[in-house]
């Protein structure tokens, strides 16, 4: 039995009420609660008030914006609804794959996209009960003053473990944030920082209301791969999202642009430099090997999640190579 | 010694109790609970509906699965306040004059040993089978039950039972 700390709750029914409740000090947003509540049960935070978004209909839309040529997904949409949505499936299969690989069907019925984007960073030394942590005296992210992953490190390197985030970054998604300072738009890739404790650019009282994903301009191919200890339930040990713009539909297509984003390294999702891939034949074995090498070279793994860092790093090469092969074969 | 190891209790003042009105297993229920209670705690400790189990209490095991407005969810990660005004169905709601086909098949297949996971599995399976409304494959059942752990049976009999129940349910619907 894991008890929650004592707090008050608010259940606003529209966005205005929600924002006003969030502007009060000590307020914390709860969406599906599937990340927040385990963390509170582990006493990683003790907010005064939990403000629930579950009754705010305005945040639960999936709509096409014809002018922007983009799909707009409300922050309150559940991952189950994203995974089952025809329009998302038709245009962004890699997002459907990522959403449907999160945790379990029960959790996906609760978990929201906004929560997945704002998911707290994770580490084997911090996502533990308070009692467990007390045995090692905590760490920078909890009640201690050392890091057990990088022992001399002065900042926290807990891992960004969201399945949807690398995919959304690879698709060039834009985030809509609304708060006391007003509304702002920013590229999702710029939302994250390398500090595992304050890992987003979220301002005080601000919430994510929407994600906008642009429709690919040309011929494209996108993929998400995730490696886990067990087939279901588990957070990723590594995650790779890829999105290629190609010269043609045919088997001899050439890569015009490649975005590869790696998750679960540290707090910031890592977007790789991919200039070397431009101009290469998409389906070539040489290209596949090069993708694997890039993932390996730039994927500096740490012992912040289960399994040895070196093992995970080697698997980045394997998963990177396999991912592009699978994509090419499926065309 | 143990007292020293125990974390200092949270010192925030006790908040006003929430007054919740929900429909639980078809009946209108009014119940007061502290704001920091989960739906699972309200069910078990306020309404004495102890069928839903408190296993891991953090989303890993599915023993606490109930249906909220028809969807299978984890009651250990649902705030009582979030369930307010909604329709909640627990395993106790499955007790009717006749066994539900899933219960019947679970019984025939001997798909429970200690039985701790069974209430959650029944809730997840019922929500799933009523959503798809047809006979399902073993693979589909395994997917649908991916969030419900069983430490005893090895799952084979549970999956057999649910596949069997889906066939019975599909046939009765056709009749
Ligand atoms: C057993 C288990 C397995 C899991 N496996 C995975 C996995 O494989 N992959 C994965 O990605 N996740 C996994 N998760 C984590 C979690 O279920 C998901 O990340 C989920 O999408 C979180 O969404 P939520 O709505 O439940 O967020 P909440 O728990 O409600 O919120 C998470 C955080 O985001 C903030 N937040 C929520 N919504 C907003 C918003 N609109 N604007 C600003 N801040 C917001 C909250 O304040 C909180 O800090 C798992 C969780 C459990 C319990
Ligand atoms: S990376 Fe270091 S500081 Fe951060 S949670 Fe892990 S052990 Fe703690
Ligand atoms: S008790 Fe809710 S998932 Fe384990
Ligand atoms: S029967 Fe014992 S856990 Fe499933």
Task: List its traits.
heterodimer; A: 331 residues; alpha+beta; Uridine Diphospho-n-acetylenolpyruvylglucosamine Reductase, domain 3; 3 domains; 5-stranded antiparallel beta sheet; 4-stranded antiparallel beta sheet; 12 strands; 27% helix; globular; B: 175 residues; Ubiquitin-like (UB roll); DNA polymerase, domain 1; 5-stranded mixed beta sheet; disordered N terminus; binds iron/sulfur cluster; binds FE2/S2 (inorganic) cluster
Query: What name is given to the CATH topology of the largest domain in chain B?
Result: Ubiquitin-like (UB roll)
| CATH class descriptor name of the largest domain in chain A | Alpha Beta
Question: What's the architecture of the largest domain in chain B, going by CATH?
Answer: Roll
Proportion of residues in extended strands of chain A: 15-25%
Overall number of strands of chain B: 5
Helix-and-strand structural type of chain A: alpha+beta
Largest sheet of chain A: 5 strands, antiparallel
CATH topology title of the largest domain in chain A = Uridine Diphospho-n-acetylenolpyruvylglucosamine Reductase, domain 3
């Amino acid at each position: 039995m894991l008890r929650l700390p004592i707090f008050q709750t608010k259940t606003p029914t529209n966005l205005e009420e929600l924002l006003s409740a969030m502007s009060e000090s000590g307020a914390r947003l709860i969406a599906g609660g599937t990340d927040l509540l385990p963390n509170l049960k582990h006493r990683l935070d003790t907010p005064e008030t939990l403000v629930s978004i579950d009754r705010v209909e305005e945040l639960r839309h999936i709509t096409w914006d014809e002018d922007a040529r983009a799909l707009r997904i409300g922050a309150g949409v559940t991952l189950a609804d994203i995974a089952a949505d025809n329009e998302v499936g038709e245009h962004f299969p890699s997002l459907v794959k990522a959403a449907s690989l999160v945790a379990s069907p029960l959790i996906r019925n609760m978990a929201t996209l906004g929560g997945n984007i704002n998911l707290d960073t994770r580490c084997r030394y911090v996502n533990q009960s308070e009692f467990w942590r007390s045995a090692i005296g905590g760490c920078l992210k909890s009640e201690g003053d050392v890091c057990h992953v990088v022992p001399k490190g002065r900042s926290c390197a807990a891992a960004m473990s969201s399945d949807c985030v690398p995919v959304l970054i690879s698709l060039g998604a834009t985030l809509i944030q609304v708060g006391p300072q007003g509304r702002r738009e920013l590229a999702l890739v710029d939302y994250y920082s390398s500090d595992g404790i304050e890992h987003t650019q979220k301002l005080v009282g601000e919430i994510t209301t929407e994600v906008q994903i642009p429709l690919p301009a040309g011929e494209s191919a996108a993929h998400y791969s995730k490696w886990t200890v067990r087939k279901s339930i588990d957070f990723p040990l590594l995650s790779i999202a890829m999105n290629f713009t190609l010269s043609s539909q045919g088997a001899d297509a050439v890569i015009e642009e490649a975005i590869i984003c790696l998750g679960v390294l540290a707090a910031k999702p890592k977007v790789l430099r991919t200039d070397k891939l431009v101009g290469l034949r998409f389906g070539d074995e040489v290209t596949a090997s090069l993708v694997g090498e890039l993932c390996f070279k730039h994927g500096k793994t740490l012992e912040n999640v289960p399994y040895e860092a070196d093992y995970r790093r080697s698997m980045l090469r394997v998963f990177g190579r396999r991912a592009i092969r699978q994509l090419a074969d499926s065309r | 010694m143990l007292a020293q190891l125990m974390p200092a209790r949270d010192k925030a003042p006790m908040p006003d109790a929430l007054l919740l009105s929900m429909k639980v297993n078809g009946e209108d229920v009014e119940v007061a609970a502290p704001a920091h209670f989960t739906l699972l705690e309200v069910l078990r400790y306020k309404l004495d509906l102890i069928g839903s189990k408190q296993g891991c209490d953090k989303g890993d095991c599915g023993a606490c699965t109930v249906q909220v407005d028809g969807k299978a969810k984890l009651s250990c990660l649902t705030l009582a306040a979030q369930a307010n005004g909604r329709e909640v169905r627990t395993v106790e709601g499955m007790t009717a004059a006749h066994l539900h086909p899933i219960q019947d098949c679970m019984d025939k297949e001997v798909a429970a040993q200690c039985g701790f996971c069974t209430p959650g599995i029944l809730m997840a399976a019922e929500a799933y089978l009523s959503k798809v409304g047809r006979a399902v494959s073993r693979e589909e059942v395994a997917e649908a039950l991916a969030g419900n752990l069983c430490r005893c049976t090895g799952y084979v009999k549970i999956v057999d039972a649910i596949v069997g129940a889906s066939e019975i349910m599909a046939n009765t619907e056709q009749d």
